[in-house]
């Protein structure tokens, strides 16, 4: 990759000329020369700096954003060429939405490393919208999402079905063996994920399909915090069965699905490149091994 761009990205991320100089075993004047040369090529200043701080200006933010994409593509090119020598190694940037990323992906990473011990997986967890955005910008090799994304990708494939269940605390007025009607679901507070989340999308589809109007909502940014809030008796929530195995096993949560509601959704993976390393190819094959997920149940 272009050395001037590499030094610029480091200065932008470290907010420091001195730390960049230490990282690349250079003098600070040499770092300054690289930045000045890049600014001359671009035709404008990219950094605002004084004795106390270094920060990107508007032009610098643009160069940094596209520079990260260039760096990702350059690294991908190197490892794809290296794959031609049959070395299944190198980095793989994996993104996943919260449910899959927190409850299924760790086991898949362990499987990946057992097959490709020289691979270097880096994992990013975010909501469905965030992961789709990162794949679209070539900052991730593959993204795993729940729900729908309006973005178009070279590869977008469903690979695993997910069961959604309505959960409550054991102290919920209805007992486990009782049934709850769809109409009753609107009488309670619902604990929801943030906008952009696949789980939030599934909840909204439930309300729309069965004409449920909840009494009130509370919004949380993670499944873990929702589970804790449900356990505390704050309300009901719609969660993936993958996410509540331990809580069901130890009686911390119960399910209260009405008999006439069956909720399913699918996980999909996204790619935005025609080319893939052997490690990425192997990881994709793991995703599609349906019997592998049976071993993840407690």
TrEMBL record:
Classification via InterPro entries: LysR_HTH_N, LysR_subst-bd, WH-like_DNA-bd_sf, WH_DNA-bd_sf
Superkingdom classification of source: Bacteria
Short name of one Pfam family: HTH_1
PROSITE patterns named among the record's database cross-references: HTH_LYSR (PS50931)
DNA-binding found in the keyword field: yes
Keywords assigned by UniProt, alphabetized: DNA-binding, Transcription, Transcription regulation
HTH lysR-type domain location: 1-57
UniProt keyword annotation of Repressor present: no
Molecular function GO terms recorded: DNA-binding transcription factor activity; transcription cis-regulatory region binding
Similarity comment: family membership: Belongs to the LysR transcriptional regulatory family.
Protein name (record): DNA-binding transcriptional regulator, LysR family
Organism of this sequence: Jeotgalicoccus aerolatus
């Amino acid at each position: 990759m272009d050395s001037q761009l590499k030094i610029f990205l480091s200065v932008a991320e470290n907010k420091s000329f001195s730390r960049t100089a230490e990282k690349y075993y250079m003098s600070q004047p040499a770092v300054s020369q690289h930045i000045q040369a890049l600014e001359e090529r671009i035709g404008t200043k990219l950094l605002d700096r004084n004795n106390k701080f270094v920060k990107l200006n508007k032009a610098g933010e643009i160069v940094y954003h596209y520079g990260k994409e260039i760096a990702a593509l350059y690294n991908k090119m190197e490892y794809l060429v290296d794959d031609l020598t049959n070395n299944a190694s190198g980095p793989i940037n994996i993104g996943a939405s919260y449910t899959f990323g927190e409850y299924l992906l760790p086991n898949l990473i362990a499987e990946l490393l057992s097959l490709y011990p020289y691979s270097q997986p880096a994992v990013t967890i975010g909501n469905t919208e965030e992961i789709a955005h990162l794949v679209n910008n070539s900052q991730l090799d593959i993204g795993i999402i729940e729900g729908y994304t309006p973005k178009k990708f070279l590869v977008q494939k469903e690979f695993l079905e997910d069961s959604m269940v309505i959960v409550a605390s054991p102290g919920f007025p209805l007992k486990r063996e009782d049934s709850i009607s769809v109409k009753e679901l609107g009488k309670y507070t619902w604990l929801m994920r943030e906008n952009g989340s696949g789980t939030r999308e599934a909840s909204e589809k439930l309300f729309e399909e069965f004409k449920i109007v909840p009494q009130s909502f509370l919004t949380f940014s993670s499944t873990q915090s929702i589970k804790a809030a449900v356990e505390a008796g704050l309300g009901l929530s719609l969660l993936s069965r993958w996410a509540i195995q331990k809580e069901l096993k130890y009686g911390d949560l119960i399910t209260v699905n009405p008999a006439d509601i069956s909720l399913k959704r699918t996980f999909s993976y996204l790619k935005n490149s025609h080319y893939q390393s052997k490690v990425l190819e192997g990881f994709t094959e793991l995703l599609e091994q349906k019997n592998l997920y049976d071993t993840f149940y407690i």
